[in-house]
Amino acid sequence: MKNHLISLAIAIGFGLGSSAFAADGMTRDAYKAEKDKIETQAKADKKACDGMKDNAKDVCQAEAKAKEKIAKSELDAKNNPGPKADEKVTKMKAEGEYEVAKEKCEDQQGAAIATCKKDAKASYEKAKAAAKSAAAPKTDTKAKS
Predict the structure, then answer these.
(1) How far out from the chain centre does Cα 135 lie?
(2) Backbone angles phi, psi at 108, to 5 degrees
(3) Average pLDDT, the chain
(4) To the nearest 10°, the Cα dihedral for 58, 60, 66, 68?
């Protein structure tokens, strides 16, 4: 009887442990399915740009690339949650906005292009710094432990 109770307790422990593990991340199949969905959407988004011309096409393609990178970083964060993953998502969003903003600057002329790109770069650097500082306190407390 005692051995049966111990076996039952061990089985329950393993059952709880594996379900807790699944809650932290995604299954390999779910991750792959979600990643495939993102890539399929990215191809469709890029294909939608084919009918456009000149800088509008470049902006569209930059938006499609940014959307894909952000979606993949969000998927990674969903699969392996934590402060570093959150920081990566925030940085990817800032990078995507920066790439799109740079392309949109190309619609301007003369000195306005340089000013536009300078402003876009400043916004990007500010967003990166904010992402890093938002994640820093969480990272530091783990390092001290």
Answers:
(1) 15
(2) -85, 175
(3) 82
(4) -120
